[in-house]
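User: Hi! I'm a student and our assignment asks us to look at how structure tokens line up with a sequence. Could you show me two examples?

Assistant: Happy to help. In each example below, the sequence comes first and the structure tokens follow. Example one:
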Amino acid sequence: MHRAWRSIPVAAVLLAAACGNTGNNAGAGTGATTTTTQGQGGKTIALFLPESKTTRYEAFDRPLFEAKVKSLCPDCKILYSNAEQDAPKQQQQVEAALTQQADVLVLDAVDANAVAPLVNQAKQKKVPVIAYDRLISGIDYAYYVSFNNVRVGEMQGQALLDAMTARGTAAKGQIVMIHGSPTDPSSADYKKGAKSVLDGKVKVGREFDTPDWSPDKAQQEMEQAITALGKDTITGVLSANDGMAGGAIAAMKRAGYEQLPPITGQDAELAAVQRILTGEQYMTIYLDIRAEAEKSAELAVAVAKGEQPAAPTKVNNGAADIPAFLLDPIPVTADKVKDTIVKDGFYTAAQLCTGEVKAACEKQGIE
């Protein structure tokens, strides 16, 4: 098991990031490249995130990464870009960062199967690349930082099977599987892990690969499944993340479900954790995004300075064995929220326990 790197609560980091930002951050969520500077003479670190539909990227990954870089290297400059799920835009952003003489690229690729030419451009300029969250295939590069994605899928599959077994529905009806974007290699890992648990134990009625991880498209897919299978035959939903789980739940509510079947998720989004507490969603996978962002920042600063930190493992991407840091995912049901998500400061009780969620929080001892 790989250890997780932990530090101060997220709320404190976000506050520090907000207060310490002295650069120009106009266009932060628009896909524009933004620059944060805290001095002169430092290295330039470029961070590229793929989209903002998944709330974690702008709410957590970016501010946590920036705060850690600034704490380690006050004179470093950060170039930040969000591609808004547009691969050509991300290409332009990477090329712009290379033109601005970035010393290291931290890249969460929109299409991780198609960015090898960008990585090659960086290599030609002797600029190291760190693959962040999504494994880039087809080319060698410096590091890969993510979670054990097959294990994520295994945990989702096991949780769904456990919930259906508890309800006595594992051998009845059919499940719907809503997978992530086909351009994200992590999706294949989640799928592989879930199927290794569920194959032969449940019947799959419908299965979808969801472009862009879009909640809206997931809602449409769930509506198609309900129409094709009939709502009374669907006894479980394997959703690869929380945003798509929200879309599937909206479709089921619209279809008039009196009791929702168990549904999985991932990312511990605020709305999803609230749904778990109130019983609409069965579980999520809690990813210690703080650990992922901070470890990536540590590597970026070290690599920019010419260092080569040792990695605990390697992952083969089809072209090379990439030095990797793989963090452990944590499955969270309603009874685990207090001792994981709240305990770590990922969300406070005040953030979670609003409106109709208050009673559910009290039931779980969250105050």
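Example two works the same way, sequence first and then tokens:
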Amino acid sequence: MIRSLPLLALFSCFLLPTTPLAAQSTTAPEQWYNFTDDGHQMFVYEVGQGPDTIVVLHGGWGAEHSYLLEPLAPLADRYRLVFYDQRGSLRSPAPDSTIRIDRLVEDLDDLRRSLQLAQLTLVTHSMGAALAYAYLAKYPERVRALVMSGAVHPVPFKSVPDMEYVREVWPQADSLELAETSNEVYKSMRIRAVEQMRAEGMVPDSLADADPLTTFRTLFAGSTDREYTRRWRIFFTAVNSCDVGNWRNTKGGMAFYSQAVADAILADTAYADQQAGFWPALKNFAGPVRVIYGTCDYVDPGAAIWQRTVAHLNDGELYVVEGAGHGIWSSHAKEYARVIREALGDF
């Protein structure tokens, strides 16, 4: 089933401090460290009340949890929300040699045991879905439900997903058309960023007649620190939102992301092998899977592939937010709060 949702243009901060979340809950948030079975200290942030616990998996690989605090804050009146920084991420530093997919899966299971939960309800964003797939493939009986926003597909992440998977869920799919659409989406993100930089007076006269893609490459190559940061934030907003004009509300920055974590995972040969089991694990999962997507999300423009994928799941449902991007809440905060509550309320 696919649920289309009305347009709601409200701006929200992408990365926010913990105070607003605490203020909305009668239970004070708690920060603690979970010691995994190999002695790694994993930062955990817990808030909210209610009988049901949700464990949140942030994106990346190599991002961290704080950008999801504000979007999920409205759930704290009904749920116990458990956020954590995955191994190697900002508040959970770890040697690169330990950053492997099997360790991240076991870290999540260590957290489950610490929380004394027989099963996990997982709320994920972006690449956090890949960790959910890996966990589901190993411990299907320990997963109660999945609610995924802007989820990567259950195959190796590429601009166009593996066509064997795509044709299974969408036999009429045209690989060339999908590749062209993906290429246009990636180009449009850069073009929208350059248009915003030009409107902000950040493009020098020497580039006045240059095409947007050349301008984009040139601007980042010759920036001062302050200019680079502003341009980075504009492009980051273009990646996550259809509306680049709200880039000043985008909090956080480059230090919140670790490329080394992504590099370590992608270099892990076990990760490449395990990805082959992601789609079978998701397809065979008996529990509810809820997928929330913005129509201009670059991972799956128009949620075209996910529309077909949910139909192949035992209990799958897609929620579509018109006009939203990869970070749905960055431009549709109230609508995202409503729809994720609705998705969780289905089970």
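Here is something you could point out in your write-up. Residues 2-170+257-345 form a domain with the Rossmann fold fold (CATH 3.40.50.1820).
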